[in-house]
Amino acid sequence: MGSLTTIQRLSEFAGQSVELQGWVYNTRSSGKIGFLMLRDGTGIVQSVISTDDVSGELFGTFETLTQESAVTVRGEVREDKRAPGGYELLVNGLDVHHVAQDYPIAPKEHGTAFLMDHRHLWLRSRRQHAIMLVRHEVIRACRDFLDNNDFVLVDTPIITPNAVEGTTTLFAIDYFGRSAYLTQSGQLYNEANAIALKKVYCFGPTFRAEKSKTRRHLTEFWMVEPEMAYCDLDGNIEWAEQLVAYIVSRVLETRMEQLDVLERDVSRLEVIGTPFPRVSYTEAVDMLQKAGIDFQWGGDFGGGDETILSENFEQPLIIHRFPAAIKAFYMKRDPDDERLALGVDILAPEGYGEIVGGGQREDDLDTLTTLIKQNDLPLEDYQWYLDLRRYGSVPHSGFGMGIERVVGWICGVPHLRETIPYPRTLTRLEP
RNA sequence: UCCGGCGUAGCUCAAUGGUAGAGCGGGUGGCUGUUAACCACUAGGUUGGGGGUUCGAGUCCCUCCGCCGGAGCCA
Q1: B chain positions with any atom within 7 Å of a protein CB
Q2: Distance of C1' in B50 from CA in A429, Å
């Protein structure tokens, strides 16, 4: 009998007998010759069943197969131009483990609502399979980049006692009779961890109870958040752009096949490299006004504004030094202009929006105490956070990068819900 | 929360206010190289719910529900 292998390794077995374990993606038949598109989770291969080569009994078995039935197939691997992918399997053995009844997703176009209701099955499709592989590579690239640069993974809690920036966008939970929230960022803990371990990152799910109903929003999404002690805004920006560039190069290196399935224009990714263009918030406002947009200094950019700004560049666009009033209280003021905060956003090209947000943190005890009071936040809840400014305070910076937005940009998919296995949105909790 | 769009067979969609249809999927049969194969036959409907106008409503009006994506907010 042939070696047990997977479809992704099939080209190594040309001319040899192999055994594949998988599911029926589709079948076609001309009466005396049958084509079984076999899916095994690693790829899809055309398997040919000809009555010239196999018994009538085996052909009869083939004819009972339905979409997504579970089968083990044995046969000889052959290079053939007529086969999608260039290789096919000449079948001489077929075991049926389970015959699927009325698989809901037909080989045709479906609406997104229907597909999302069947997300647990939709993931088997070629396109979703490709997106999940790119997502895996993006996550692996994040970890490799940070690990190889001496960052330490230090997990931050998902259940938190207090609101970082108010409670309106937080999911409240009952914690044995006390109120608690699902985290919207690991950042405050990250700051403590950075003072303890120099360069750290956390990587986990994040929750936002925003009533956003757009293609760019999920209520549960994954974020990687590096934080560095002894690091200013410029150092922070360099880490962020290097991380983004590394992720793109890794996906291009390892997932060309999947980008091809997604029909992604990879030339838009191949040009990505550091340094990324940098503009200040004030310069960005000028750019918008010159483009004829009625935008006043001091406002925050909307989705449309971001698209207009990023369309001027083929690289991700770094925007830095925002009005302090529109940024979080913990952001350090610009010593050269007190109206500004040392924050940074990175906008992905092609209108995919903000993929990175971060900045240098306020490290002065008195200033931070004042800011907490000015924002009407409960000072007592922030005592541990203020301790970081009492004991060995140093300049430190960090940023968060949204995994789904990066995956969406790299894959070229218009909607974030396809970039996470089981999306949670304002109206979707199942499956 | 506001604005706009949509809701017809399992799915994707048709149907001037006048007999509710097609393709895919399912079933049956045919076909020896198919590429979401093809051909023939076949089963499958409370047109999202309720109310109204009309001789007559899938179609027009009101209302409720659900979904979609845009604003706000954000990664």
Answers
A1: 1-2, 10-13, 23-27, 30-38, 66-75
A2: 28
- Phi/psi for A146 (5° steps) reads -70, -45
Report the Cα A189 to chain-centroid distance in Å.
23
* pLDDT, tens digit (0-9, with 9 covering 90-100), for A285-342: 999 888 888 888 888 888 888 888 888 899 999 999 999 988 888 999 999 999 999 9
Cβ proximity of A34 and A62 under 8 Å: yes
Nearest nucleotide (C1') to alpha carbon of A107: B36
Closest CA to B32 C1' — which residue? A32
CA distance A25 to A48: 14
Q: Which residue is nearest to nucleotide B36 (CA to C1')?
A: A107
Domain locations along chain A: 3-98, 119-418
Choose the CATH number for A3-98 among 3.40.50.1100, 3.30.1360.70, 2.40.50.140, 2.60.40.1180: 2.40.50.140
Helical spans, DSSP H, in A231-354: 233-254, 256-261, 267-270, 281-290, 303-310
Fold observed for domain A119-418: BirA Bifunctional Protein; domain 2 (3.30.930)
